[in-house]
Write a structure and sequence with these properties.
Length: 473
Amino acid sequence: MPWRVEPEWSPESWKQRIAAQQVLYPDRLAVDTAVEKLRSLPPLVTSGEVEKLKSLIADAQEGHRFLLQGGDCAEALADCRADVIASKLKILLQMSLVLVHGLRKPVIRVGRFAGQYAKPRSSLTETRDGLTLPSYFGDLVNRVDFEAEARKPDPHLMVRGYQHAAMTLNFIRSLIDGGFADLHHPEYWDLRFMEHASLPESLRAEYQTMTRQLSEALRFMELLGEKSVDDLTRVEFFTSHEGLNLLYESAQTRRVPRREGFYNLTTHLPWVGERTRSLTGAHVEYFRGIRNPIGVKIGAKTTPADLVALLDVLNPWDEPGRIVLIHRMGASGIAQALPPLLRAVRDAAPAPSAVSEPGRGRPAQGRRVLWVCDPMHGNSLTTADGIKTRDFSQMIEEIEQAFDLHRQAGTILGGVHFELTGEDVTECIGGAGGIREADLTTNYASPCDPRLNYHQALEMAFVIARKMGNGIA
């Protein structure tokens, strides 16, 4: 597909716009030094991988695949450890297997890892006991400890973030190449989920039946001998993070040989957040010029006109696989807020520059997007003790409503987006583990937003499989 960006764009043209969530670094020279260092380092991902993910997302837009995106709300540099990385990879693999089996379609696995080191904040500062300091914007910017030196933005953390992202990616790729995600070996991706005392016996039986059926199906395919089983048993993982710190993102944005345009090579799928998607802002200016598939978070206050205008700017060619719209409305607001947006995108006139794509054609109307449900960010609550949490039942309610609303509108809900961990944390209430408000302090490890733990995440996959698919046999 021909590619041009109009009007004139460069990886740094965003600097002419107002940047929401802008970090105020006290040492300008140190910022320039860190950015130059990042520019000199090799890319974390390749343009070929980016284009592969874009083609898979294009399939999902037509209902042929399903996207599973999940991981930490904010990665910590200190969590760049083998056990933590492997646990996150395992739970995403387990969830994807449940979805593949229940939905009867391939799953695109995208981790919120190897770069999710920056977090937007509702305020630039935080006050505790009369002391006001800069807010914690993630390990890419400053440190979580509530101390003046720790909260001072440090540009060298961008270089450290890159280094830890590189180590994380290297370990993930080594695990996959070493057979970690080989479906012949369910013992590799088994977690303590199956041993949890509070796990309902019915759910335990479902999971055991599913893994047995998958193993039997693989053996059957091997006996047929008509297709390479490696094609069936090897899985791919892609990376994603919020493109919040534009200094970091633009420093690794470059041209590559034999391809048109610029690629952000810090990650496969960057996304622009609810707080930073202003049409006239720096983030949309940056995102409109990169060739990656891009995610866009949209909340209950998004208007149909603003959403279509945003698509005009970010995808004027209506390129397949380019746009992932991640709606986060909340269980109480989705029924009113989502349908107008679905209709607006479904019924919009073709993008001004839309062209035919081999094998896909040019739509008569509507825009090519992948609709994804994020049931977490719209369902946050604070307990009487001041602890931020999320209710598992509300997340389930939002997902179930989302499937129904898409079905009624004639659109496709093609993915889900979660903040989760493979660890035994107690940050969200409800689910198979029976976590109550009184249990939250047992192991609340997140510095920002509450995440699903391993058994809540897998239970969520079963709920989706039942709702969207034909159930688990």
